[in-house]
Amino acid sequence: MTDTPHDPNPIAGYVRAAAHLLALPLSDAQVDRVSVHLARTAVLAAALQRVPLAADDEPSQIYEPAPFPAIDPAEDPR
């Protein structure tokens, strides 16, 4: 097994690897911005993971957007 150097910014490494797999060209500045947002998301997720939940805690309702209002064919501009 070979030793690999420790990545000083593993989130940026993850962003680069994911972008490469998706054939998504990102500049270093873009990688930095995505890394910042992903790090913020990780902090938020860690905070939520620390909240104790009991087996009988009720999950929130699944979001369902309201249906679009019906369009009267006589008023449809198409």
Calculate Rg over CA atoms. Answer: 22 Å
Structural class: mainly alpha
Secondary-structure element pattern, one letter each: HH
The biggest sheet, with number of strands, parallel, antiparallel or mixed sense and barrel status, is:
none
**Unreliable stretches covering 5 or more consecutive residues:** none
How many helices does DSSP assign? 2
Strand content: under 5%
Beta-strand segment tally: 0
Helix content: 40-55%
Write a structural description.
This protein has 2 helices and no strands. It has a domain at 10-49. The chain is flat and about 65 Å long. 44% of the residues lie in helices and 0% in strands. It is mainly alpha-helical and 78 residues long. It has helices at residues 10-21, 28-49. The mean pLDDT is 86.
